[in-house]
Write the structure tokens for this entry.
Amino acid sequence: MDHILNARWLFGTTMGFHIVFATLGVGLPLMMIVAELFYQKTKDRDYAVMAKRWTKSFAILLGLGIPTGTIAAVQLSLLWPKFMEVVGKVIALPFQLEIYAFFLEALFMTIYVYAADRIPPALRIASLFLVAVGAALSAALITNVHAFQETPQGFGVVNGEIVNVEPWEAFFNPIFFLSAYHVITSAFMVGAFVIASAAAWKMLRLKRTVREYRYHQKALMISIIVGGIFSLLTALNGHESAVMLHTYQPEKLAAAEGIFNTTDYAPLAVGGIADPETETVKWGFQIPGMLSILTTGKPSGVILGLNEFPREEWPPLVTHILFDLMVGVGTFLIFISLIVIGFKLIKKHSNFPKWLIWGLVFTGPLSIIGIELGWSFSEIGRQPWTIYRIMSTSEAVTYTGNMGLFFIIFTGLYVLLGLAVIFVLRYYFSRHTLINELE
């Protein structure tokens, strides 16, 4: 691989690994709050046990999220020095504020973990609420830098020098709020579905007691309700993101839908492969006029095609596949949530059929895959730019050697860290069994 691709693979692998723990670090606190609220309202001790066990999982995952986040920060400086020069001069504010958000999260997480049984219920809930706020703010602030890369503003460039810097204008770039909202809702969705997946798996295992089964069924229901709500909110936000792409990054929208020639009544392409030779989406299903409706509000809306831009500025056409897979995962999560809720409303006292529980087992892994696909779509779809129409990836990258070797070393490290966190989780919960905590 060439030098730029090596650097992208190295940083992409780091972020792909870190994003799992960062997302769960935002999503799990919400589920802990929900369980705590149910406990305070019903005095059903099952919900107190849920909050406690999910908190332990969160603490373990947070312990791995911190070092992987540190590695990502170091790699930003080492792999993309020209980009970090712009960050230091223009958009350093989110990084500085994120320190305080993490401090808020860590402080109240410590209070909840070590003093939950010794403080009043209102303070228990307040502590968890501030943990969730700190985690969400951290995610939003880091996302702000990504939003700046997509829609940069608040500075000028004269003879290669950065001038007229307005940090707050750069901070409040056009897609900041939309991006932050999308990241937070999707993280809440992932946190809920990971818990639903674990509960469904436990319900399928043999030799479960009735007591344990009821516990997991309660955990499953509240996580599916929360997951269903936030999967819908994420989908609605995705529609707004498409509108933003039409306004600010039309070539990215064109690549995502395989639109080569500027057209009105643009179709929405579902599936298939965007082929630059035939300038069509091969083997795809097209809904006439739907893309124009979704992005402009009317079927006659004009969508710019890729041919309006120089070929070297086209995003990689794999963007179309990433987009379709991301939407497919989100659609599955919405539908299975509706099926579960509908089943429970119709047959209140019946257990879920095994086929449905098996479907729920896959919701956790699929939601994480959906997050990875969304991040990949956003980053790959911005190429060849690191800062859209300001700095190309080739301009931002370092020319330090041995990228291939570093990629192998860090990939091995992430495999070890992944195995370590699985071992720690299994070891802890084997020593602190559910049945003992329930009794």
